[in-house]
Structure formats: structure tokens, C-alpha cells
Amino acid sequence: MSDVNPGKLQAVIFDLDDTLRVNDPHAHIFFHDFVRTLGLNLRQDALHDSFRWAHEYWATSDDMLADLQAHNGMEDTFWQAYTRRHLNALGLEASKIDELADEVHQHMRGTYKPKSQLVPGALETLNLLRSRGHQVGVVTNRSRPIYQEIHDLELDLHLDFFITAGQVGAFKPQKELFEGVLNLIHLSADEVLYVGDNYFADVLGAEQAGIQAVLLDPFGLYPDVGSLTIASVADVVKLLESEALI
Fold first, then answer.
1. What DSSP string describes the chain?
2. CATH code that applies to domain 11-22+116-241
3. What's the pTM?
4. What is the pLDDT of residues 158-187, one digit of tens each?
């Protein structure tokens, strides 16, 4: 992995989902809170465990790929299977999963209607980075174009570029995605800083391509991974002003 010299830094790239943009309420918290209303005594750390499980699952894991193939993409049966895996990540026994999976799936399908919104300080941070001469962009693991969503979030006037994994033809944490992005923006790995919330997809993926990664960890999910870690997007500017990247 290349160390970033702040004086050489040309671009700061952000993940989109759960980094610059969040759902309110968050799906995992909504899911967890509903399961608790069913009278289950979940472990104290069950929510954090399920967050970490989901991060690893969505990092193009073998389980995710197998589910997509088995259920012909993200059809309803995919989300039924995902609900079962999520309940397992919360620590439920197989018999309880069999008993509750359909009820939980139907509840999520029928009542989870989140609002998509920017995280606090997102636009201010992007503008401050640009005012200091850095390009700012988004790289997301989405397979489809995100033009409309970027516009709806009013990010389009504050970004120099936004790239989906589908455009590149590779997905986090595959290093080919990050190498493809570097080619598209005509920069080298040591000229870029990458910020994302998913340790498995964002940090390990960027590091495979030699890019300095920063883990956004507002819930304190990864206290022991040894990565540069921040609690909020606004902390990126503080990080650049510190000696942590030197």
C-alpha cells in the first residue's frame, strides 16, 4: 500500500452508501428493533455483530454470489434468504429462524420506507476539500447508474466524478475496481485517499490496489483492525491536517 503524502494528494474518493449517504432509519437498526419486539432476548453485541456480518456479506462474498445465483438476482426470494442470514447473524437458533423469518421479511417488505439523506457535514467537507485543490469523487459498488440519485441528493454540484462498479466491470473488494478508477481519473495510487465504511469492501479493496484507505466507523464496529479510522465524514479534513498520513 502506498502512503499518501498530503502535499501530493490530488483526490479524495468516498464510498456512497453509509458513507456520504444514509437511510433513515438504518435498515439494520430497524430490523434489530423489530426482532426485539417479538420478545427475543438478543445478545448485547448482536447489533454490532449483524453490522459486521452484513459488511462482509455485501463485500462480494461467496454467500452473496451464491444467493444472487440461486434467486435470480434480488428477487423477493433473495430477500427471504437474506432475512434468514440476518437473523442468524443476530444469534438466533435455527428453530427460531424457521418460526420468525417470514414474519420479519414481510414486516421489512411492508413497512421499511427509509428516507435517503446525506450524512451531517457531507457537503461542507466536499466543498472544503475542493477549495484546497483536491478532486472529490464517489466510487460505489452499485451495478446501475446513479445519476438521478446523485442529483436528488444535490451532490452533483459538489463532486468532480462519480463512478459505479458496474461501469468498471469489477466490484469491491476486487482491486480491479480501484485500479480501473485510477485509470479513469488519471491518477496514481499514492495521489489518492479513499474513505468508506465497509472494512471488507472499502478498506481491504483499496489497500489491494495500493491506495491509502480510511475507515469511517461511526458505530465503533472495528476497534482492532489497525486502519486509519474516523467517526464522521468531517473528520477527513482533520486527518489531512494531522501527521497521520505522513
1. -PPPPTTT--EEEE-TBTTTEEEES-HHHHHHHHHHHTT----TTHHHHHHHHHHHHHTT-HHHHHHHHHTTTT-HHHHHHHHHHHHHHTT--HHHHHHHHHHHHHHHHHH--PEEEEPTTHHHHHHHHHHTT-EEEEEE--SS--HHHHHHTT-TTT-SEEEEHHHHT--TT-HHHHHHHHHHHT--GGGEEEEES-IIIIIHHHHHTT-EEEEE-TT---TTS-SEEESSTTHHHHHHHSSTT-
2. 3.40.50.1000
3. 0.95
4. 999 999 999 999 999 999 999 999 999 999
